[in-house]
Amino acid sequence: MKKLYSIALAGLLGGSLSAQTAFWTTTSYKGAFPVTDNTTASDWTSGWTSFDPENENYGAPTTTVSTDITTNTTWAAGTVVSLQNKIYVKNNAVLTIEPGVVIRGDKATQGTLLIAKGSKIIAQGTPSNPIVFTSGEAAGARAEGDWGGVVILGNAMNNQPGGVANIEGIVVSTDSEYGGTNDQDSSGVFSYVRIEFPGIAFQPNKEINGLTLGSVGSKTKLDHIQVSFSGDDSFEFFGGTVDAKYLIAFRGLDDDFDTDFGYRGRVQFGLIIRDADLSDAAGDSNGFESDNDATGSANTPRTQAVFSNITSIGPLRNGTVTLPSGEKFERAFYIRRNSAISVFNSVAASWEKGVYLKDAGTVDNFTTNDSAVFANNIIADDISKAITIDANATQTIYNTIFTDDDNDSTTTIANIGWVNAFPTNLSDTPDYRLQSSSSVAATGASFNDPKFVGVIPSGINEDRTEIGTASIYPNPANDKTTLNISLNKTGKVTIALFDMTGKSVIDVFTGQINAGMNSFAINTAELPAGIYFTKIVTDSYSKTVKTVIAK
After folding, report:
1. What would be the CATH architecture of the domain defined by 3-21+460-549?
2. pTM of the full predicted structure?
3. Is the bond leading into 457 cis (omega within 30 degrees of zero)?
4. 8-state DSSP, 35
5. Which CATH topology does 57-434 take?
6. Please, where in the chain does CATH 2.160.20 lie?
7. How far is CA 449 from its chain centroid?
8. Is the dihedral of CA 346, 419, 211, 218 positive or negative?
9. Which of 107, 182, 183, 208 could be bridged to 169 by S-S, CB 3.0 to 4.6 A?
């Protein structure tokens, strides 16, 4: 029986496809940004970020939150919240934060927001009206570690004994637990959000991070998040399966992306910017730090996240910076303790050291076990220390891990040719797009590794058995068109429309449909003329139909 679904325009210019099999966006370029088109359209940092949060004027609080949230609550647009004490959203409550809300963490009471297991946060900002978590201190007097940060705890799996643990740095209670058996758990939405000056030390050497994610599940939506001046890590993933896109770690103190205890999510498009005067005196400051667990065991699920299209700028900047005495900067990528994370299509520059694979178990994951891959990356201006491997490693292993997978350690920063990667003042807005197509980073990205599942394709009609036929009519279309698809068996399907850059512009449908012919009406009235791709994704297969919009 044929079914007709009338789908209104949704997620125009920035909507994200939630299906697990349609996460990756193919690029020709390495790093987080394409060749500039001299407009804001190709710069995903435009509009919602701040590179001078020390001096932003956020206004006085209009309300104070000092007790736990146990029922569904909304912080309305225009509100400035003074966040006092450690505030749990618990008892399955949902906290909704509207665009433009500012939350100012109180220093004296160590203001912190924690989303307990089973509860949700719906923080959906916009490119022009982001949600801001920041310091309660006055402009000009703010610093890293002024308040706690944001902690989200979920029910996905981790590899700690028993599968349930308590998030570090917090007093142990049932509210601080994370972990379970539901890898598809949802903790809500966190999109177009800034987190500034977090990471206060609750106890000596017991700071929390800018954004802490404990066993957060794959149905949680994370994108367009900037963490600035964190007193500990900018982002830390403790187990879980959550995916994320468009993350910025700006002038943090410790690590930028820390992954451990079985984190298996995917991250694409990330920006790291370090400050030579900010490193962790108590330990190493790295771009990436990754462990399977604290002891380097083989506990499962293994830490096996996949990162692609990261631009990482270390403290040396363009080579003119002299690091201060006592600094603790180390590596762009520090992978140890049996971790099996993979990194693709990324660019790291201005670090003292490039990649360090520490201990034999980690090296085995990149060689014998073939469970981790480091491929198609650029380590700029770092020839002598591009990759350091466990002391027992041989040149053959070096070639297997680094050279044979098309990594480049001979490129200079000049060869990359960013538009404005090193502004005179770190507080000025940088531009990490590439100046021209002649940049060594403008080509050479690859998404052919088996670790990329459900890549948004550059071609069409790539798949096979679950989907019978798929067609668009009319094609070319003007204000509307209809997608007809036949399924060979009943199942969950996700359908979205992508533009030529791989950006999802309409989330058409997500849900279960029956075997046989099904039709979906797609409203294209607000789309500009051009070539698009309609992608249909099932649990195992995908098909893409070229779609032309003519005005």
Report:
1. Sandwich (2.60)
2. 0.80
3. no
4. B
5. Pectate Lyase C-like (2.160.20)
6. 57-434
7. 20
8. negative
9. 208
